[in-house]
């Protein structure tokens, strides 16, 4: 269940075990089981682990595709143009 994995990652991060927290969240993300809010939890862990050079590539490879998938499920009843508009809006709001 993803809530227990989120709690596990949070506990690891609290103990300054950021790399382990990243692994737990990455496992969750790879199964496509993370909510929109859960997807961004990993970013500060990368920063705190000193893995700055990896964050952008990780976002492009893992987080953005998962956000797009979430967006498509939420707006599946809308045309693709509306889906794309909301997806792009979501990307810019987070900045």
The topology string of helices and strands comes to HHHHHH
Our measurement of the CA-to-CA distance between the termini, rounded to an integer number of angstroms, reads 29 Å
SS element count, helices: 6
Helix content: over 70%
Radius of gyration: 14 Å
Structural class, from helix and strand content?
mainly alpha
- In percent terms, what proportion of residues is strand? under 5%
Note the overall shape. Answer: elongated
Name the average pLDDT. Answer: 88
Largest sheet: none
How many beta-strand segments?
Answer: 0
Q: Stretches where pLDDT falls below 50 for ≥5 residues?
A: none
Domains (count): 1
List the helices and strands and how they pair.
Layout lengths: L1 H13 L3 H13 L5 H4 L2 H7 L3 H23 L5 H14 L2
Helix pairs in contact: 1-2, 2-4, 5-6
What does this 3D model show about the protein?
With 95 residues, the protein is an all-alpha fold. It has one domain. 78% of the residues lie in helices and 0% in strands. The chain has six helices and no strands. Helix 2 packs antiparallel against helix 4 and helix 5 runs antiparallel to helix 6. The radius of gyration is 14 Å and the shape is elongated. The chain starts with a helix and ends with a helix.
């Amino acid at each position: 269940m993803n809530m227990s994995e989120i709690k596990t990652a949070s506990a690891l991060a609290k103990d300054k075990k950021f790399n382990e927290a990243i692994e737990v969240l990455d496992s969750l993300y790879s199964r496509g089981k993370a909510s929109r809010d859960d997807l961004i939890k990993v970013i500060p862990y990368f920063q705190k682990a000193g893995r700055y050079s990896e964050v952008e590539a990780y976002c492009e490879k893992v987080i953005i595709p998962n956000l797009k998938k979430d967006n498509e499920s939420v707006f599946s009843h809308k045309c693709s143009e509306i889906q794309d508009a909301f997806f792009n809006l979501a990307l810019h709001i987070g900045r």
